[in-house]
Amino acid sequence: MSSKEPSLRARALRHLARREYTRHELTLKLAPHAESEAEIAEVLDDFTQRGWLSEQRAAEQMVHARRSRYGMARIRRDLQVKGVAAEVINSTVAALKDGELEAARDVWRRKFKVLPAGAAERAKQARFLLGRGFSSEVITKLLRGLAKDE
Hints:
Elements: H1 8-18, H2 23-30, H3 37-50, H4 55-66, H5 72-81, H6 86-94, H7 100-111, H8 119-131, H9 136-149
Helix pairs in contact: 2-3, 4-6, 5-6, 7-9, 8-9
C-alpha cells in the first residue's frame, strides 16, 4: 500500500461517517483494499467493540428509510441481503407489524389515489402492493376498507 492511500481503519471510518453499515457491507467495501480477510476482521471487531459498528443501528436505519415505501416482506429481504443476522431482523421487523396497514394505505394513496374500477384494475393495484412487500392479507384489508369508506 502506498503512503498516500488511506489505511483500512480510515476507509472504514469514512464509510461509517456517512451512514450505518452492516458488518457484511463494510467487509465488501474494504475487501479490495485489504491484505487479508483477517485484517478486515480485526478492524471490524475493534469497531464493534468500540460501538462504532452496530448491526442493530444499521438495521433500524434501513427500516426507517424504507418504511414509507415498502412492506415488511420487502424490508426483511433487504435486511437479509445486507447480511443482517436473523435475530436482529426479527426484533427490528416485529415493530413494523402494527403499522403495516397504514403504511400500505400511504403507498396506495401516493400511487393510485382512486379505487379500482374493476377486477383487472384491482389486480393491478394488488400486484403493485405485493411487489412492494405488503402481505396479501394487508392488501385485501386495505382494498376492502377503501371500498367501504367510499
